[in-house]
TrEMBL record:
EC supergroup of this enzyme: oxidoreductase
Subcellular localization, as worded in the UniProt entry: Cytoplasm
EC number: 1.8.4.10
Catalytic residues (positions): C373
Residue positions binding [4Fe-4S] cluster: C265, C266, C347, C350
Residue ranges of every copy of the Phosphoadenosine phosphosulphate reductase domain listed in the record: 184-352
CC cofactor note: Binds 1 [4Fe-4S] cluster per subunit.
Name of the protein in question: Adenosine 5'-phosphosulfate reductase
Pathway: Sulfur metabolism; hydrogen sulfide biosynthesis; sulfite from sulfate
Region forming the signal peptide: none
Sequence similarity: Belongs to the PAPS reductase family. CysH subfamily.
Gene3D superfamilies recorded: HUPs
Annotated Pfam families: DUF934 (PF06073), PAPS_reduct (PF01507)
Length: 394
């Protein structure tokens, strides 16, 4: 959870209902520095002017009035507003996390609330209660509820021993990177949904170590996709890890090991190179999700393994639909092979298209009785998983 910055926003802006309607004329091209909107504002008159509005302040007359949150979602998701969006008014600490999830970039607190809650009190409240104030937007599904009921829900759910329970994916990622500063990495396969975590990292810490296994057997489209995402997202510490050339020459001189002994090929080109590269790290960020396998159904966001290593699963509670929505929201480029029917993408010789109705993982090592490459840290060691994974298609 980011610290509350009470000095982030200085301007107050002009109220839409006090402005000359000509200001919002679609034929104008001058910028509007800041605009204030009441929670019940009709956006019809200002939609055409949104690209010119640098900041929008949505007023909250009372913490019990949630219409401003809905207005923020409409501005961001339906109208694609990209300027600074500020929640302004009678908000309380519990609502800060929800404001961020609804698309607000900042919260400007009314003086009356600041008089009751110091910055230290805000930070303490956020640490103690990081669920949204409406359960419908938190981990549990169900109707909206009062803030007081949500507090009780948070207390019960924290018995799961997951210190990151209730955090959004972005907040979990941000907190993990800060907590394991310099001792955490992300291994990216550049698969069908890899752009999601890469995009989040680019907005939080673009120089985070990101490891990609350049096995020498990738689709050329995967390598082009890697280069595109590095450039588009501004990732500055993207590290390609290749197998040892001497070991490749000794164990796979003709490049056909995948056809005769796939497990050995994966060990040579994936498991051993990655272990050499990241074995010194104490924490790893993964893209694993609860819906993928029965074994992951109770997977926490912050997972402490035997031996003291940590796996952080920011997307643990995400569905395939959440992945799709995120990709669309931020207009992230899709892997070029995905549209061709490759729903799980690995090395070219061991990846095939997936037929309609098939498990997306069916295209990996088809007809070989193999389901995993072996990259999985267990008790501080990289070990294979025997069970086949299943995925929703997004």
């Amino acid at each position: 959870m980011p610290k509350l910055n009470l000095s982030l926003v200085k301007a107050t802006g002009r109220a839409a209902n006090d402005s000359d309607p000509v200001l919002f004329d679609a034929t104008r091209n001058d910028d509007i520095e800041a605009l204030r909107l009441p929670a019940d504002a009709d956006l019809t008159d200002i939609v055409d002017a949104l690209p010119r509005i640098q900041s929008i302040f949505i007023e909250f007359a009372a913490f019990t009035d949630g219409r401003g949150f809905s207005l923020a979602r409409i501005l961001k998701s339906r109208h694609g507003y990209t300027g600074l969006l500020v929640a302004d008014g009678q908000l309380i600490p519990d609502q800060f996390a929800f404001a961020l999830q609804c698309g607000f970039d900042a919260v400007r607190i009314a003086d009356s609330e600041l008089g009751r809650h110091t910055p230290e009190a805000w930070d303490a409240a956020l640490e103690a209660f990081d669920l949204t104030y409406q359960r419908g937007y938190a981990v549990r599904s169900g109707p909206g509820t009062s803030i007081f009921d949500a507090r009780l829900t948070a207390m019960e759910d924290r018995k799961t021993d997951d210190p990151f329970f209730g955090l959004s994916a972005q907040a979990a990622l941000r907190q993990a990177i800060a907590q394991h500063d310099g001792d955490i990495f992300l291994a990216s396969s550049l698969g069908a949904d890899s752009a999601v975590l890469l995009h989040m990292v680019s907005r939080i810490q673009p120089d985070l170590p990101i490891y990609f296994l350049d096995t020498g057997k990738h689709f050329r489209q995967t390598l082009a996709y890697r280069d595109q995402l590095i450039g588009d997202l501004g990732l500055t510490n993207f590290i390609s890890v290749a197998p040892d050339p001497d070991e490749v020459k000794a164990n796979d001189p003709d490049g056909q090991l995948h056809a005769t002994y796939a497990d050995a090929c994966c060990a040579l080109r994936k498991v051993e190179p990655l272990q050499r590269a990241v074995g010194h790290f104490g924490a790893q960020i993964t893209g694993r999700k609860r819906y993928q396998t029965p074994e992951r159904a109770s997977m926490p966001i912050y997972e402490i393994r035997e031996g003291g290593t940590v796996k952080v699963n920011p997307l643990a509670y995400w569905s395939a639909k959440d992945v799709t929505n995120y990709i669309r929201r931020y207009d992230l480029p899709a892997h070029p092979m995905f549209a061709l029917g490759y729903l799980s993408i690995g090395c070219q010789p061991c990846t095939t298209r997936v037929a309609e109705g098939e498990d997306p993982r069916a295209g990996r090592w088809r007809n070989q009785g193999k389901t995993e490459c072996g990259i999985h840290m267990v008790d501080g060691k990289w070990e294979p998983l025997e069970r086949k994974q299943t995925f929703e298609a997004f």
